[in-house]
Amino acid sequence: MWLIVLIISPLIFWADIKLFKFYYKVIFREKGEFNNSKNYGFTTDILSLFREKDMEDNFAELKLSICIMLCVGTIALEVLFVKFFFL
Question: Burial of 8 by CB count in 10 Å (0-12 exposed, 13-18 middle, 19+ buried)?
Answer without folding.
Answer: middle
